[in-house]
């Protein structure tokens, strides 16, 4: 009776090697691929960088996560094997062979990263300071070099979700088939239009309100409606849906956002601005019920104190000493709303 040879499994290296590359998947990506959820996988690379910068790396993007593709060299001999059956000369039981069809000296590793999406957008998008910005860009930039959301997204080395979050953070809007980053003055101006319209109509911004109700005021003040909607998207509470035509603003988002914008706008010198003057300006541009939230604690990590009693915008993480931090507002508004905005809207 014939028996199989238990001495081992025959092994051979094929003469014609296939060009294969091993791909190492992190657990999160492996779970996504093997699950029943539908997710797009996109292989992308960054736009060419500035002269002297290294060549862009390839990244793999899901709907919300970015993975950097890195080639890792190996000093070990790694073979890709393929089983096969071989008939013996005496017609006994076929034996199983292993054939090395490829040798991989390097592995592609996918590592999750947090891309610098905001820095990328600031590098590639123009700044909007008013209608003159569109005129200037049109006269000096060929149409092919303009970036709409769709065209820039294809060249952005990060996922759609991270792209949208960065656009929301910067209040990026599209006008004349071009994405724009608004200046602090533009953002402060749009907010002033919003708070003025809300005050004149006795609208509580913390509750759901009709977005279209403020549109005429924003347009009369010279701001694009696309910028207005971008600001609302940035300041809306988590459960608001602008697609339905209504939204509600979150005081926890609006207060520090507005404070940082006003401080950066007023920090025109190294000495900064008087803390008391800044606090008064900040509180005066908030609804009465939100004024008490305007404290320097809300701007933690956004300012420094170069001179006593003066502060300046600083995102390096410096904070004013507690001993010189102005006391928070008492919430009392000594000026009427119509008086407050009378000069502001001239």
Automatic annotation (TrEMBL):
Cited InterPro entries: Dcc1
Domain of life: Eukaryota
Listed GO CC annotations: chromatin; chromosome, centromeric region; Ctf18 RFC-like complex
A Pfam cross-reference name: Dcc1
Keywords noted in UniProt: DNA replication
Region of interest (Disordered), ranges: 310-346
One Gene Ontology term from the biological process aspect of the record: DNA replication
Residue ranges with Basic residues bias: 334-346
Family: Belongs to the DCC1 family.
Protein name per its UniProtKB record: Sister chromatid cohesion protein Dcc1
Organism of provenance: Cladonia borealis
């Amino acid at each position: 009776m014939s028996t199989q040879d238990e001495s081992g499994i025959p092994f051979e290296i094929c003469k014609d090697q296939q060009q294969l590359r091993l791909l190492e998947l992190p657990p999160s990506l492996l779970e996504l691929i093997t699950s029943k959820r539908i997710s797009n996988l996109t292989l992308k690379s960054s736009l060419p960088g500035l002269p002297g910068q290294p060549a862009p790396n390839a990244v793999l993007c899901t709907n919300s996560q970015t993975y950097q593709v890195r080639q890792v060299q190996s000093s070990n001999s790694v073979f890709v094997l393929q089983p096969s059956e071989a008939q013996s000369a005496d017609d006994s039981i076929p034996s199983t062979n292993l054939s090395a069809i490829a040798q991989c000296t390097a592995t592609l590793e996918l590592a999750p990263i947090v891309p610098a999406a905001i820095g990328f957008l600031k590098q590639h998008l123009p700044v909007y300071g008013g209608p003159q910005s569109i005129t200037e860009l049109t006269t000096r930039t060929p149409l092919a070099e303009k970036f709409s959301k769709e065209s820039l997204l294809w060249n952005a080395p990060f996922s759609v979700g991270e792209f949208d979050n960065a656009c929301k953070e910067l209040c990026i809007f599209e006008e004349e088939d071009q994405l724009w980053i608004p200046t602090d003055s533009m953002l402060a101006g749009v907010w002033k239009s919003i708070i003025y319209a809300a005050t004149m109509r006795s609208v509580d911004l913390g509750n759901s309100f009709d977005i279209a109700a403020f549109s005429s005021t924003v347009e009369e003040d010279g701001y694009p409606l696309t910028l207005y909607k971008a600001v609302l998207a940035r300041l809306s509470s988590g459960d608001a849906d602008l697609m339905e035509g209504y939204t509600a603003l979150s005081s926890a988002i609006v207060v520090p956002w507005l404070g940082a914008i006003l401080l950066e706008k007023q920090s025109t010198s190294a000495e900064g601005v008087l803390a008391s003057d800044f606090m008064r300006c900040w509180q005066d541009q908030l609804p009465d019920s939100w004024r008490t939230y305007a404290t320097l604690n809300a701007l933690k990590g956004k300012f420094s104190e170069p001179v006593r009693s003066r502060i300046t915008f600083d995102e390096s993480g410096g904070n004013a000493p507690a001993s010189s931090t102005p006391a928070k507002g008492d919430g009392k508004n000594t000026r009427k709303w119509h008086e407050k905005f009378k000069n502001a809207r001239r």
